[in-house]
Amino acid sequence: MTEPIRVLVADDQSLLRGSFRVLVDTAPGLTAVGEAGSGAEAVESARRLRPDVVLMDIRMPGMDGIEATRRIAGSPGTAGTRVLILTTFDLDEYVYGALRAGAAGFLLKDTSPGVLLAGIRTVAAGDALLAPSVTRRLIAEFARLPGAHRPRGSAPEGLTEREREVLVLVARGLSNAGICEYLRLSNGTVKTYIGRLLNKLGARDRAQLVISAYESGLVSAAREAGG
C-alpha cells in the first residue's frame, strides 16, 4: 500500500489552518502531520516532522513564508520537502521571492478544494505548480524587477541547442505535453531533457527552471510580459 502524502499546514490564522487540515485529512492518500502559526514554527516543524509538502502562507508574524521557504528548501535535512505557497492575491508582490527561495509553486487561498488537493499531489510528485497563467504573472513580476531587462545572448552555459529550446518553452509555461507537440518529441524524450536541465542548472524543479531562463537572459522578460 502506498504511503499517504504527509502535509504540514503553516498559516497564522488558526481557522484557516484548521480548515486546511480537515480538508487534507479527509482526502484519499493525504494526511496532515502538523500545523504551524509562524515561519519559525514551520521551519522547526518541517525539520522535526519531515513532511512531503508544506502549505505555506506568505504573510506571517516574525519570520515570513519566504524566509521559511528558503530555510526549508536550503537545508539538507528537509531537502525532500516541497513548499506550496498559499497567497491571498494572485499578484502578490512576494510571489516571485517565494519561488526564487525554492517554492514549488503557489495557489490562491480561495482556490477550490479540488484544485488545492490536486496541487498538493502535483508538488509531492516532484512537479512544479506553474500553469501558463501563473507563469505569465511570474514573468510580469520579473519584468518589473531591477535588472530584468538584460540583453539577449547570456544564456546558461553548457546547454545544447535542443536543451535551450526546451528551456524556453518551459519558461513560456508549456507543459510536457505542450513541449512534445511543439517540438514533435516523445514524452519520454521531453522528460529526459527536463531532467538534464534540472541537473545542469542546479534547479530543484520547474519553477526554478523558469526563473533561470529569465535571469540568464535566454528569454526576454520584457517581451514575454508585453506579449
* Helix count, DSSP H or I runs of 4 or more residues: 11
The total count of strands amounts to: 5
Name the CATH architecture of the largest domain: 3-Layer(aba) Sandwich
Described by the principal axes of the CA atoms, the overall outline is: globular
Q: Termini, distance in Å?
A: 47 Å
- Largest sheet, if any? 5 strands, parallel
Description:
The protein is of the alpha/beta class and 227 residues long. It folds into two domains: 125 residues, Response regulator (Rossmann fold, 3-Layer(aba) Sandwich), CATH 3.40.50; 87 residues, Rossmann fold, CATH 3.40.50.2300. Helices cover 51% and strands 12% of the residues. Strands 2-1-3-4-5 form a five-stranded parallel β-sheet, with helices on both faces. Strand 3, helix 3 and strand 4 form a beta-alpha-beta unit. Helix 7 crosses helix 9 and helix 8 packs across helix 9. The N and C termini lie far apart (47 Å). About 3% of the residues have low confidence.
Element layout with pairings:
Blueprint: E1 5-10, H1 14-25, E2 30-36, H2 39-49, E3 53-57, H3 65-74, E4 82-87, H4 95-100, E5 105-108, H5 113-124, H6 132-144, H7 161-171, H8 176-183, H9 187-201, H10 206-216, H11 221-226
Parallel strand pairs: 1-2, 1-3, 3-4, 4-5
Helix pairs in contact: 2-3, 7-9, 7-10, 8-9
Pfam family, one: Response_reg
Domain Response regulatory: 6-124
Domain HTH luxR-type: 152-217
Keywords:
Rossmann fold, single chain, 5-stranded parallel sheet, alpha/beta, transcription regulation, 2 domains, 227 residues, CheY-like_superfamily
